[in-house]
Design a protein that fits this description.
Distance between the termini: 18 Å
Radius of gyration: 16 Å
CATH class: Alpha Beta
Helix content: 25-40%
Number of helices: 4
Number of strands: 6
CATH topology: Alpha-Beta Plaits
Structural class: alpha+beta
């Protein structure tokens, strides 16, 4: 079953991504985590995300498209990226989530993906 690991990071940690010291000391954990997922045969996909200020929100109201620049809501943590993994159970997904480099300072949400066949 596919699960999505959603990585929420505090603003301070998210902003640190551009700091040369963070790049030197913290960034290497991310490719290592991705490689571990790939080597275990559970990696399906994923990506890091640009800051919320780069977001655009779209809504359709009364047949009209409404576009808003920036994040829709202010939050203490922001979605920094995600991984999609294919594992046999939620317990295994939670084990992988706990290994995420952001787990010590952020929030890691795990959600089962809907089966596309169930939606047809």
């Amino acid at each position: 079953m596919n699960y999505t690991i959603l990585i929420y990071e505090p603003h301070k940690e998210f902003a640190a991504r551009k700091d040369p010291e963070w790049i030197r000391t913290s960034f290497p954990a991310w490719p290592a985590y991705t490689k571990a997922l790939i080597d275990a045969g559970v990696f399906v996909g994923g990506a890091g995300l640009e800051p919320p200020a780069t977001a655009t929100t779209v809504r359709l109201r009364d047949g009209k498209r409404l576009v808003q620049d920036g994040p829709y809501a202010e939050a203490k943590e922001q979605l920094g990226g995600y991984y999609i993994i294919n594992v046999p159970s939620l317990d295994v997904a939670l084990e992988w989530a706990a290994k995420c480099p952001a787990a010590p300072y952020g929030g890691i949400e795990v959600r089962p993906n809907l089966d596309p066949k169930a939606c047809s």
